[in-house]
Amino acid sequence: MKAQDFITIIAPMAVAEQRRTGVLASITIAQGAIESGWGAAVPGNNLFGIKGTGQEFQTTEYINGHWLSIVGGFRTYDSWEGSVIDHSNFLVENSRYGRAGFFDCCKELDYVGAARCLQNVGYATDPKYAAKLIQIIQASGLDKYDILEEPTIKEDETNMSMKLEDWQWDMLYKVMGAAYNADQLGWDWMQKIVDKTLTASELGFLNTVLDGRVDRGIEV
Predict the structure, then answer these.
(1) Using 50, 70 and 90 to split pLDDT, how confident is the model at 151?
(2) Do residues 172 and 193 make contact, with C-beta atoms less than 8 angstroms apart?
(3) What is the pLDDT of residue 210?
(4) Among 215, 207, 165, which residue's Cα sits nearest to residue 189?
(5) Residue 205: which pLDDT band, with cuts at 50, 70 and 90?
(6) Kind and range of the H or E element at 51?
(7) Is 218 in a helix, a strand, or coil?
(8) Whole-model pTM?
(9) Tens digits of per-residue pLDDT, 112-122?
(10) What is the pLDDT of residues 1-47, one digit of tens each?
(11) Phi, psi at residue 110, to the nearest 5°?
């Protein structure tokens, strides 16, 4: 898999997890890239090499100044998304990362400091782990994913065009036509009904006007 293809797949998941847990998206993507070889080796959908039960395979670790081949147990997931979510949970639930200042760095959007925290508390045995993370983030511009945009506010349903059947629009046209003088209101209300673009809030306004006319004894 090409690096950009891997980023395209993982980035939305990483951004979602940053919103949920605070783990920098750039760190998540870079760790996934290192641990899985940019998605080339993902047994059990385990993108981050998190140890546990579910599968065993051979891997290499840096121990006492030497790279050694060992067989270890690793977690398995139904999907890459499950692995990304568990990665965030793993960092949150293991208090040593918080104590090392990892989440403080994430809050400051300091991916360099966050990467060094991961190495300092032993996420990986590779003595160059932090440097590799930083290099990947900088080479691919992954820090842009750390700058979260404000979530789009869902449009208030009262400001959305009403969803009515054709016969209901016809009935509304007849009722409004008999009750209102659109020219006096200063709005082309009848055209909104014809175009089926009248919103719930606009209908509420018209009903308020209608109620006021009734209260004042004006024939409608």
Answers:
(1) low
(2) yes
(3) 57
(4) 207
(5) low
(6) strand 51-63
(7) coil
(8) 0.63
(9) 999 999 999 99
(10) 899 999 999 999 999 999 999 999 999 999 999 999 999 988 889 99
(11) -100, 85
Q: Which residues contact 23 (CB under 8 A, 6 or more apart)?
A: 17, 87, 88, 91, 92, 103, 106
Token pair of 219 as six digits? 């024939």
What is the residue-wise DSSP string for 15-59? HHHHHHH---HHHHHHHHHHHHTTTT--GGG-SS--EEEEEEEEE
Residue 61: active-site member: yes
* Annotated active-site residue in 5, 17, 35, 61: 61
Nearest CA to 74 out of 59, 94, 85 is that of 59
Determine which one of 35, 86, 143, 202 is catalytic.
Answer: 86
Joined together, the tokens standing for residue 192 give: 């909104």
Cα dihedral across residues 163, 165, 166, 171: positive or negative: negative
Tokens of 34: 């290192």
In the annotation, is 104 catalytic?
no
Coil vs helix vs strand at 147: coil
